Structures are given as structure tokens and as C-alpha cells.
Amino acid sequence: MSTTSQKHRDFVAEPMGDKPVTALSGIGEVLGKKLEEQGFDKAFVVLGQFLLLRKDQELFAEWLKDTSGANARQAASCSQCLTEWCDAFL
Amino acid sequence: MSEFLQDPSVLTKDKLKSALLAHNVALPNGEQRKGVYVDLYLKNLTAQNRRSAAPEPAFSSDEEPPAPVLSGRSRSGRKATRKTDRVRPEEIDVTELTNEGLKDQLLKYGVNAGPIVASTRKLYEKKLQKLLDQGPPETVVQLSEPAVTGNSQNGNTDSDQYSDKEEEATKAEPEPEPEPVPVVERPMRSRGKAPVTTRTRSGQHKIEKLSAVEQTPKTPDRDVLKELFPNETLNTPTGISATRRQPIKGAAGRSFSDSWRDDLRPRLTEIRHTSSSSSSSSYTETRSAIHRTNAVPLNALPLSSILKPAAPPAVQVKTRRRLPVWLQLLLLSAVAGFLFFVYQAMETNEMNPFGQSASSGALGSTSK
């Protein structure tokens, strides 16, 4: 089995629909709150940002770090989560 | 020291704070967001930038010796002083570029940027800034390609970051400082990405360094191997040499005489001789034989009934046992005898145990 968390697997398993931003892998309560303050209150909005950056994991991770104060691990995890979701559903 | 940065967001928060403090700018209490410090910085210091355009060489000479001017500046205050000191043909202020301009600049570096909107602009500015720091677009295109093509791989981005650092370091000075950097990154590189060949700018001397360094670990390896295996005369292609294992006794048509030759079976001959002379069921002879042999493996005894042919003298090795074998056999025979006795005593008990216990007891004693 790969080293993905349960949260990651849950997110990638189905279309995100209206899930909150905290459903993303790597985004917990604190980061979720910060993102919501910025206007990213739903997971699909963050997805929008990811797509705007042309699905570039590195750029997206950097953006996430700047916007929410995530550390490298969390940002990478979220990046990976979104990439896999896009591969599956986009 | 003043840094006349156009885009202070490339600095870390700490650096911003220290720079602000150096200029006696009042910092807000507590931990603020980086943007706050960036704004303060811009307000206070960038304003100074416009005032003092002249003393650039003076500042640079303050910080570093004038000899390695170009590289020295880029080493210590790399993000800080480089932009304004060096005169570049392209625009140096990424923040003042239009969206279009920014996109074009990025395209020059081979970065296919997405739409530059409010939320993405800052990111692309930073990226362009980083690319500009690395130098003219032509040489950087090859650098960025592994980064661009390997987006989804974490490993690739790591190597890109390492390569950035390395670029700065080697550009700086021919000091021991860059030495550990390429040495450290050598294992990263040699993992099989082959970015060495793509580095043209600082590539030449680096390639030599890498090749030189790569030679050295190989030769110590060979010495170590030779030390470990001094008897390695066969030099098989795989380096594996097989040694014969002990043949299994009694298997594959191997008689026990052969197995004795190889194995360390002490005093089997004596047991064999004594047991062949007596009946196999009686333990006494074997016991007496074993009494002489201090330590014999226990499974020699079941074999003793089977083996008949003459055996060469066995190697006598003492194996440690808590109890001598004869003693174990003695105990075994005692227990067996006891059980036999009990069985015999209770055997003929067909009658009603409640009615005629006396007669059954008498029968039991008589039947024995």
C-alpha cells in the first residue's frame, strides 16, 4: 500500500461535491480556517486555484504555503491529493 | 545595511524584520503576517531606494572585498543586493510587469504559466524572480526543463531546488564552500537523473569535480571488498562461491558410514557394537555403553538398531547435556515400568467395583 493517509484515500475516492476545505488531505482545522478567511471555503475553490496553476504541484504547494501557512509536508500532501483527484475525475 | 529590494517578499519574514529594525522602523507587536512586513519594508526602504541610487558600489565594497565583486555580491546578500547592482537588459521589477509581460518573461524561461490573475500573480512573480536570479534565459531553459516536465514527481522538484542552491554556490567563489555542496549533491544527482549534462553554465568544472569525486568512492570500495574476502581466488562473475553443506544422513542412498565421516558423531561405534550384541529392546546394555560415552546425541540410539555394517572410528566430540544420556534412559525406563505396573494392577476389573472391591484387589494382585 502507498503511504497515503485515510483522509487522502477518502477524498480521492469520490467526487468532492460540496465538501469543506478541511476534507482535503493535509488541511486540518487551523489551515482550513485560514483558507476560509481568504475566501476558499470549499474544497472546489481550492481545486479551482489548483487548476489555475495548471495543476502544477510545486506551484500549488507554494501558493498554499503562502496563503495558509502550511508547512512543506502539508502542502505536498494537499497537492498530491488534488492531483490524484483530478486524475480520477477531471 | 540597506537592501534596496523591489520585491521584498522574496526575503523571509525574519530578514524583513531585521532589515526594518536596522532602519529603526517600528514593528507591530506580535507575529504579523508577512505581508505586513513587506508593506512596511516597501514603504520605508524602497522609498530610500529611489533617493540613493548612487552609492551602490560603495555598499558592495563594504560588504565584500572588491576583487570578487560580481560573485561576492551574489553570495552573501544574494537576494538583496544583486538586483540593483547588476544592470540587466530585461526588466528587473517583476512587480511592475503587466500580466502579459510577466507571462512573456516566464515563457522565455520555458515556463508555461497559467492565467495570471489576482490569486496567481504573486506566485508567478516569485517564480520569475527566482528565474531571473539564476541568470539569462538561455542557460536556464535547460535547468527548468527537468522541473517543468517532472511536475508530479516530488523527487524532481527536490533536485531542482538543490540545483538552485548549487548554482548560487558555484557562481559565488572558488572557495571550499561550494566544495561540500557539489559533493553533497553528488549522490542526489547520480541517482540517475543526469542533469549534469544539462548544466552548461557552471557545468564544466562541476562535471570534472563530479567525475573526480565519483572515482574516489569506487576505489575504496574495491579495497574494502578485497579486505573482506582475501581468499577470493575464484572471482566468479557473481562473486558467489558455494561451499558444500553437510550431507543429510540416511538420505539419497547415503549410508550412515558416509555420514559418519562427515558428521561429528561421537562414539557411535561403541554403541553400535554393544547394541548389536544385545537385544534392541533392552536398554541396559546401551545404558552401560552410553555410560562410557559421556555425551552422545540422543538420536544415535534409534539408529543403533538399524546400523549393522562396520563404521570407521567416529570423531569424538563432547556435546553438553544437562543430564547424561544413561540417566535419561534410566528415568524413562523407570517411568515406563511404573506405568506398566499400574496398568497391570488395574487390568482385570470386570466386576462391580462397589460390591466386591476386595476380590478385585485380590485378583489384581494375583494376576500380576
TrEMBL record, chain A:
What keywords are annotated for this sequence in UniProt?
A: Nucleus
Q: Name one GO molecular function term.
A: DNA binding
Q: Which domain of life is it from?
A: Eukaryota
Ranges in coiled-coil conformation: none
GO BP terms: namely: chromosome organization
Q: Which Gene3D superfamilies match?
A: Barrier-to-autointegration factor, BAF
Q: Which Pfam families match?
A: SAM_BAF
The main location is nucleus
Species this chain originates from = Astyanax mexicanus (Blind cave fish)
Q: Which GO terms describe its cellular component?
A: condensed chromosome; nucleus
Q: What is this protein called?
A: Barrier-to-autointegration factor-like protein
Compartments where located: Nucleus
- List, alphabetically, the SMART domains matched: BAF (SM01023)
